[in-house]
Amino acid sequence: MPQNKRDHSLNLAPASIEDYRELARRKLPRQIFDYIDGGAFAESTLAANRDDLHRIQFRQRVLRDVSTRSLSTTVLGEEIALPVILAPVGFGGMFARRAEVQAARAAERAGIPFCESTLSICGLEEVAASIKRPIWFQLYVMKDRSYAEDLMARAQAVGCTTLILTVDLAVVGQRYRDGRNGISGKISRAKRLRRGADLFTHTKWVRDVALGGRPLTFGNLEKALPDANVPGDFQAWVAGQFDPTVTWDDLAWLREHWHGKIALKGILDPDDARHAVDHGADAVIVSNHGGRQLDDVPSSIRSLPAVADAVGGRCEVLMDGGVRSGLDVVKAMSMGARACLIGRPWAFAVAARGERGVDHVLRIIQAEMTVTLGLTGVNDVRDLDRTVVVEE
Q1: Residue 198: inside a domain
Q2: What secondary structure letter does DSSP report for 191?
Q3: According to the model, what pLDDT value does residue 191 have?
Q4: Is residue 227 part of a domain?
Q5: What are the backbone dihedrals phi and psi of residue 137, each rounded to the nearest 5 degrees, phi first?
Q6: Residue tagged active-site, from 8, 54, 259, 289
Q7: How far apart are CA 329 and CA 342, in angstroms?
Q8: Alpha carbons 238 and 293: distance in angstroms, whole number
Q9: Is 266 a domain residue?
C-alpha cells in the first residue's frame, strides 16, 4: 500500500486533533511524548478533563436564521478572531525545531494570542521578533525575585500585553510517566541507557530538533541561571528554583512591576476566584494544570460555572484543560468562559507537522465551532450561555 505523501511513513492524513496526537506519538521519542501527554499520579484528573466535557450535551435548536455566524470576541481588551489562546507550554522547543516561534506565527495568522512560557526553549526576544502581534507571557516566580522582575521587564520591553501568573505550582506534581522515562527522580544507569536509546532511535527528531533546533536551553532563563540547560531531573530542579512562598500578598509586588493585564492561572475554587478579584486580577483561568499537578481534583469544566458565578462579571474568566475540539470551546463558553487556552493541541500539532500543523489545528477548531453554532441556533459566540447546553 502506498504511503501517505503528506505525512510520509506515518500513513495518516490528520482530520482531528486526536489524529495529531497519534502523529506526535509516532514521531517523538517516548519520553517527550509522555511529557506532553501525561499527568500526575494515576492521571484521574487528566482523564476527567476530557470525560466531563464529553458528558455535556448541546441543545439542538432549529428554524433559526444562522446564515451569519461570528467567532470573534475580545479578551482582556484584545480583539481576537477566534476565542482561543495558545497556552504556555514548557519545553516547547523539544517538540519541534524552535517550536514556540512556529506556534506564534500560526497564532498570528489565525488572529489569536500566543503565550510564551517561562520555561520555553525559545526566549521572549526571539519569539516576539518573529511576529508583529504582541505576545503574552506566563510567569513562574523564582526564589530570587529579581529574576522574575527581570523577566517582566524583558516581556514589557518586547511589547507583551498580558501576564499570566501560574499559581498552582508551589511544588511540582508527581508525574509517574516522567519518572519511568528518566525525566524526573533518581536516574539509574539502566534508565539513562533506555533514555538515550529512545532519543537516538528517532533519527529524524535528532536531526531536526536535537541538532537542528539548538540551542536547547531555557531561553528566558539564560540571564538568570548559571546553567539554563534543560535539566535531567525536572522535579528536583523546580524544587530548587521556584518559590513556594508566594501568597496573595505578593500580587501587590507583581502589580508594581507589571503595567499590563494580569491573569491568574490555576484557579479551581470559588473562594480563590473571589480572592483573585479582590487582589486586582483582570482575569482568572480555570485550570488544573492539565491534570499535571494535584490529581483527584475536579475537572476544569466542572469547576468553571462556580468560578464564573463567584466573580460575577468583576473580571474575565478563561478556561484551560481538556479542550481538544471546537465543540469543547463552545461548551466552555456556554458554561461561563470568555475563551479557552489550548496547550496539548498545539504541542501535538507542532510535533507532528510543524507550523502548518498548528495552522491546521486552528482551522479545525474554527470549522467545528462554526458548525456547532449553526446547529445550536447561535449567531455569535458572545451570545453563548448555559441555555445552549444540557449538563448530565
Answers
A1: no
A2: H
A3: 78
A4: no
A5: -135, 135
A6: 289
A7: 10
A8: 13
A9: yes
Query: Exposure of 257 by Cβ count < 10 A (0-12 exposed, 13-18 middle, 19+ buried)?
Result: middle
State pLDDT tens for residues 199-248.
Answer: 889 999 999 999 999 999 999 988 766 666 666 666 677 777 889 999 99
- Number of helices (H) and strands (E) in the chain: give both, helices first: 15, 12
Distance of alpha carbon 264 from alpha carbon 118, whole angstroms:
15
Q: 534543560: which residue's cell? A: 230
Q: How many Å apart are CA 73 and CA 337, to the nearest integer?
A: 12
257 assigned to active site = no
What CA–CA distance (Å, rounded) separates 260 from 274? 21
Residue 107's pLDDT is what?
A: 98
Q: Give the separation between CA 82 and CA 71, rounded to whole angstroms.
A: 5
Strand 73-75 relative to strand 84-86, pairing: unpaired
Name the nearest CA neighbour of 352 among 104, 109, 95. 95
Q: Give me the CATH number covering residue 86.
A: 3.20.20.70
Return the SS3 of 391.
strand
| Spans of the chain, pLDDT less than 70 | 1-12, 224-235, 392
Q: How many CB atoms lie within 10 A of CB 245?
A: 8
Return the SS3 of 385: coil
How many structural domains comprise the chain?
Answer: 1
Instruction: Name the residue range of residue 317's domain.
Output: 17-177+235-391
Nearest to 134 by CA among 157, 168, 152, 153: 157
Does residue 200 sit within a domain?
A: no
Q: Could you tell me the pTM of the whole model?
A: 0.94
Burial of 145 (0-12, 13-18, 19+ CB in 10 A): middle
- DSSP 3-state assignment of 310? helix
Q: Based on the number of CB atoms within 10 Å of its own CB, is 338 exposed (0-12), middle (13-18) or buried (19 or more)?
A: buried
